[in-house]
């Protein structure tokens, strides 16, 4: 407890002290729940003597910065959006794909009425939360509520919810429902709209989609809201010093709503000391480092749900047949209350249907799977019983080595849909896709797939199996914590001394020198084309000896691999157009200075690069175009495909359409990136560097294009960035950046301060060790009692 007592002593000595509950002079060790030491940019270093106090400090601090966003989360998972916002407003895409508030409420009310979260919470670990996790959660809820009690609704400074009746104290049930919604975001959360299925009425059923349409639906995000990431772990052999390690954690997450990160350090002296960031409302560091190990996550490729097609009994569309025996579907009618125009509330009811495999659905992300008189489709979500992830991140927060990371992942088996990339002080680099994956072997898929499933499994790893046979159920492993998922020993993991990485491709080339092969298709594909971003990461890792400084410079160089592959050819194509006019959908368009800009472009998405905007708008049109003339070669996966296919009329027209689009936005073909890519915060225009992942830019920024003004907002992209180095016995050498800043409240001083840093290419010095924290010129102490 020495550090806790010291923190209190510092609180009494520092001038910028806020004491909530009693005077600092009386803040003895037994009287304080937590001490928050704020350093630059509003980053809290939370110290407590127990887990309940740690959760309390986190809950109070998180609410201070983001009470409105957190309140939106809790009103969503409690199925109350229609009560407060009306039925027709947009749902909450951070937690489901529901198209409006009514569907969001019906979806969550169905989950709440099922009692699934309550049943999981009631179980002991490993299925339920371990005791320390329960203590953290209890403290978090009390801390959030303490902030709300202190400010009151009218005292909230954020105009998004000041005085709003939907801001309320929360319960532990709210917290657990929130985590559950995160766990199922790639399954139930993805197919939300499809769950509003009704038995066939005799009217013609919609035509089923094609496997190609389903593939497009899956590849369009799989319900993960534009989530992506880079993780590069460099071991001792890949460092400039030949010892220690360097980790880049670079998640690409939404800049708005409930999937924002919030940064903190969490310390219980002698028990846990971890720094990093977590998704809003999660009082554990989810991406971060301890004194001796660092880790990050990247969204993985396994599809975490599967479909079962069940034949129906003749004349009874709610009875299905398994092994020749009829079995009735179950139904659940749920009710939500919807605000009317006059302010009154009206009950709305919806019936949901389910089978032994899971809920019946008629749509998968826009792909129709009709419920007909002959058959229906049911979904099984491998994360439908996963509250174990809370234990996973609790254990990761105490890791001291990459071996500890593997043990935490394997023991808890709670990571829902991400890979893990890690380093440690001993110089190890780790890649591990130890996560929840449906136990569908290639043999099971061959034996049991429906005709559509044969194509979707090979192309995308989505199993659509014959639900009429019990022999076609998902398999089991002895080492798995529950039936139907692969055990950790069956999943990809590799530890090396040079590097391991992932950029949202499969496990195959986590290291180009040591491919990971031989896994079931649903776990990982191999010998397939890598994305431009993965190729950029691999070429970068292969090229060089890293320091923390060189890793930071590499990321913010904003280099585009796709530009290397195509920009010179595009400049030549531009110069070849007759009369200096390119074809477009609206007729020939003058190329103007475009050819010169492309020929002299440095192939980066830095703020002053010219030609980058034109190339961005051009490349955005090539998603379904045969763009390369040299095809992919599995023997040369880092260098193929390549060479722009300038003979393709669609490529030529895409260039002309990009010119038209830029000019309509008032931007010249040789405009600088800063001229056409920015965000506005409190009236200040802040230019944003970086580019989309399809450009092969590691520092991903996915902007929102305004046809009249250019890129005027960021939808998702680099969010919480960390570079952590270990060498010798000193404090970790860490730098971080939360690109959109700590607070969503425009009245906060931490609303856009780090966004301005990001624009300038600057970083925040990591303050992990006690001496660094106390040296902060911005040190401010809050004692919670």
TrEMBL record:
<dbReference type="Pfam" id="PF01804">
    <property type="entry name" value="Penicil_amidase"/>
</dbReference>
<dbReference type="InterPro" id="IPR043147">
    <property type="entry name" value="Penicillin_amidase_A-knob"/>
</dbReference>
<comment type="similarity">
    <text>Belongs to the peptidase S45 family.</text>
</comment>
<keyword id="KW-0732">Signal</keyword>
<dbReference type="InterPro" id="IPR043146">
    <property type="entry name" value="Penicillin_amidase_N_B-knob"/>
</dbReference>
<dbReference type="InterPro" id="IPR002692">
    <property type="entry name" value="S45"/>
</dbReference>
<dbReference type="InterPro" id="IPR029055">
    <property type="entry name" value="Ntn_hydrolases_N"/>
</dbReference>
<protein>
    <submittedName>
        <fullName>Penicillin amidase</fullName>
    </submittedName>
</protein>
<feature type="signal peptide">
    <location>
        <begin position="1"/>
        <end position="27"/>
    </location>
</feature>
<keyword id="KW-0378">Hydrolase</keyword>
<keyword id="KW-0865">Zymogen</keyword>
<dbReference type="InterPro" id="IPR023343">
    <property type="entry name" value="Penicillin_amidase_dom1"/>
</dbReference>
């Amino acid at each position: 407890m020495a550090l806790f007592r010291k923190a209190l002593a510092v609180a009494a000595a520092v001038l910028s002290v806020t004491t909530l509950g009693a005077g600092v002079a009386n803040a003895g060790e037994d009287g304080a729940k937590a001490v928050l030491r704020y350093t630059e940019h509003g980053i809290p270093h939370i110290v407590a003597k127990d887990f309940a106090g740690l959760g309390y400090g986190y809950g109070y601090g998180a609410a201070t910065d983001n009470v409105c966003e957190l309140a939106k989360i809790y009103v969503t998972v409690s199925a109350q959006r229609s009560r407060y916002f009306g039925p027709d407003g947009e749902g909450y895409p951070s937690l489901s794909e529901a198209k409006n508030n009514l569907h969001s409420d019906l979806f969550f009310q169905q989950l709440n009425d099922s009692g699934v979260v309550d049943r999981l919470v009631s179980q002991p670990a490993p299925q339920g939360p371990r005791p320390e996790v329960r203590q953290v959660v209890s403290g978090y809820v009390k801390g959030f509520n303490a902030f709300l009690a202190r400010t009151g609704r009218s005292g909230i400074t954020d105009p998004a919810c000041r005085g709003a009746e939907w801001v309320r104290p929360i319960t532990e049930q709210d917290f657990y429902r929130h985590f559950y919604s995160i766990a199922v975001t790639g399954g139930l959360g993805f197919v939300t709209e499809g769950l509003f299925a009704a038995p066939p009425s005799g009217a013609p059923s919609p035509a089923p989609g094609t496997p190609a349409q389903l593939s497009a639906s899956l590849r369009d995000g799989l319900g993960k809201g534009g989530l992506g990431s880079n993780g590069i772990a460099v071991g001792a052999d890949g460092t400039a010093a030949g010892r220690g390690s360097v980790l880049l954690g670079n998640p690409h997450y939404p800049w708005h709503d409930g999937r924002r990160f919030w940064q903190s350090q969490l310390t219980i002296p002698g028990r846990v000391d971890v720094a990093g960031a977590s998704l809003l409302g999660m009082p554990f560091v989810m991406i971060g480092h301890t004194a001796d190990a660092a880790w990050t996550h990247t969204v993985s490729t396994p599809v975490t749900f599967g479909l079962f097609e069940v034949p129906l009994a003749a004349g009874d569309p709610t009875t299905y047949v398994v092994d020749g025996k009829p079995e009735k579907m179950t139904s659940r009618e749920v009710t939500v209350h919807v605000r009317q125009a006059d302010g009154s509330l009206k009950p709305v009811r919806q019936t949901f249907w389910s089978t032994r495999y899971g809920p019946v659905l008629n749509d998968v992300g826009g792909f129709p799977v009709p419920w007909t008189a002959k058959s229906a489709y049911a979904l099984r979500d491998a994360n439908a019983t996963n509250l174990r992830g809370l234990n996973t991140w609790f254990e990761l927060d105490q890791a001291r080595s990459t071996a500890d990371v593997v043990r935490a992942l394997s023991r808890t088996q709670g990571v829902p849909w991400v890979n893990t990339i890690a380093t440690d002080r001993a110089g190890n680099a780790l890649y591990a896709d130890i996560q929840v994956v449906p136990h569908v072997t290639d043999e099971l898929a061959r034996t049991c797939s429906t005709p559509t499933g044969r194509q979707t499994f090979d192309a995308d790893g989505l199993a659509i199996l014959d639900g009429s046979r019990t022999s076609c159920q998902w398999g089991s492993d002895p080492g798995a914590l529950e039936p139907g998922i692969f055990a950790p020993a069956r999943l990809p993991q590799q530890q090396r001394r040079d590097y391991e990485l992932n950029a949202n491709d499969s496990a195959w080339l986590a290291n180009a020198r040591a491919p990971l092969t031989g896994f079931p298709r649903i776990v990982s594909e191999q010998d397939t084309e890598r994305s431009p971003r993965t190729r950029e990461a691999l070429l970068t890792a292969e090229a060089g000896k890293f320091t923390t400084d060189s890793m930071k410079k590499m990321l913010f160089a904003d280099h585009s691999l796709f530009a290397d592959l195509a920009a010179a050819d595009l400049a030549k194509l531009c110069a070849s157009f007759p009369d200096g006019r390119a074809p477009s959908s609206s007729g020939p368009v003058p190329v103007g200075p475009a050819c010169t800009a492309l020929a002299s472009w440095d192939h980066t998405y830095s703020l002053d690069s010219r030609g980058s905007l034109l190339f961005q708008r051009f490349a955005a049109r090539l998603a379904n175009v045969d763009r390369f003339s040299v095809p992919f070669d599995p023997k040369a996966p880092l260098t193929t495909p390549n060479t722009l296919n300038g003979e393709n009329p669609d490529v030529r027209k895409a260039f002309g359409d990009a010119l038209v689009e830029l000019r309509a936005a008032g931007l010249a073909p040789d405009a600088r990136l800063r001229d056409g890519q920015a965000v506005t915060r409190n009236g200040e225009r802040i230019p944003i560097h970086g580019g989309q992942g399809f450009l092969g830019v590691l520092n991903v920024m996915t902007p929102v294009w305004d046809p009249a003004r250019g890129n005027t907002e960021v939808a998702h992209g680099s969010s919480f960035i960390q570079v952590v180095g270990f060498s010798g016995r000193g404090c970790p050498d860490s730098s971080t950046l939360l690109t959109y800043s700590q607070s969503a409240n425009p009245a906060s001083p931490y609303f856009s301060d780090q966004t301005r840093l990001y624009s300038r290419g600057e970083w925040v010095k990591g303050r992990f060790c006690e001496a660094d924290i106390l040296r902060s010129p911005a040190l401010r102490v809050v004692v919670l009692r």
